[in-house]
Specification:
Mean pLDDT is about 90; it is low at about 1-5 and about 295-310. The protein has 14 helices and eight strands. By secondary structure, the protein is an alpha/beta fold.
């Protein structure tokens, strides 16, 4: 039912009941933004999310959100954005603002709402959200990609600044590039760490101990790359042009899971370019590139470096 006795012009409805929806909703409520309702396909999930967000927020079906607000924050899976937008438009939503939280999509999935007269855009947190509670801690320090029509983007930026975050204006057509960067820096980094743990296990180190042993190295490497520059932070055999060590790695990786060997080669090829920028000679870079392209060598000799063991 419609909310009585209240101007809904500034009220916010959240479509979605997942981790991000709950964390954003709670943070907005804590900062006095008028979150009025949360919706989900599952009534149980909607009620759980509304209870987490708090402050008398209603738990409703998607089709009812227009009775509660004119500003819509759509935090659902990428494939569900368009169906939710179509359902809202079919329910009679005809004015206001809608933004979705997908990192890769522009405003196209909100087409039904755009045709209904809403200003549409996107708001994507450049942060990993493992739980609503962790999201509450992490989002206020995050950057958010903001894109879309000016009214929508301006509203999204205002929310970000209220949360203590930092908005990044991303052109709609550049969203896939932006999201690929985010995946490399987050999901693929986790994949690299998992691959390293698997290799450590093959070297006889138990998984938990391997993670503990790698942790200081990972943290220092990430901190150096972000605090300095990737070129200044780079160490290791490719940076030194240490061809024998790279060949030794390729030789033993021939018996490793093929995806890990392929990952080593692919990452190595980019590190060659990074090493060139850091000062590696073209000749040394070409030799390492040839080794990565040619495959494992029968040469097992290793060279040592007096300045760095990694």
């Amino acid at each position: 039912m419609k909310r009585e006795g209240r101007d809904r012009h500034e009220d916010i409805a959240i479509a979605g009941a997942g981790r991000l929806a709950q964390a954003l909703g709670r943070l907005l409520v804590e900062r006095k933004w008028p979150v009025a309702a949360v919706a989900s396909r599952s009534p149980v999930h909607a009620r759980q999310a509304a209870a987490f967000v708090g402050h008398g927020v209603a738990a409703v079906p998607y089709a009812a959100l227009g009775n509660y607000a004119t500003r819509f924050l759509i935090c659902v899976s990428d494939d569900a954005i368009a169906p939710v937008a179509e359902e809202l438009a079919a329910a009679g939503v005809r004015a206001g603002i809608a933004v979705h939280s997908s990192g890769v999509h522009g405003a196209e999935p909100l087409g039904a709402l755009a045709r209904a007269g809403l200003s549409c855009g996107t708001l994507h947190p450049l942060q990993t959200i493992a739980s609503p509670e962790q999201g509450i801690e992490a989002l206020p320090r995050a950057f958010f990609a903001v894109a879309g029509e000016e009214a929508a983007a301006g509203w999204a930026e205002a929310m970000v600044r209220s949360l203590g975050g930092e908005p990044l204006r991303i052109p709609l057509e550049a969203k896939p590039l932006y999201h690929a960067a985010a995946v490399l820096a987050s999901n693929y980094l986790i994949g690299l760490i998992d691959a390293a743990v698997i290799l450590m296990e093959r070297a006889g180190v138990e998984a938990a101990q391997a993670r503990a042993a790698l942790a200081p190295l990972v943290r220092a490497s990430v901190d150096n790359a972000l605090r300095m520059t990737p070129e200044a932070a780079l160490t290791g055999p490719i940076r030194r042009g240490d061809l024998a060590t790279v060949r030794s790695h390729l030789s033993v990786l021939a018996a490793a899971p093929p995806a890990i060997a392929e990952l080593y080669r692919a990452a190595g090829r980019h590190v060659i370019d990074l090493a060139r920028r850091a000062g590696l000679s073209p000749e040394a870079a070409a030799r390492v590139d040839d080794a990565l392209s040619a495959g494992a060598s029968d040469e097992h000799s290793c060279l040592t470096d007096p300045e760095s063991s990694v």
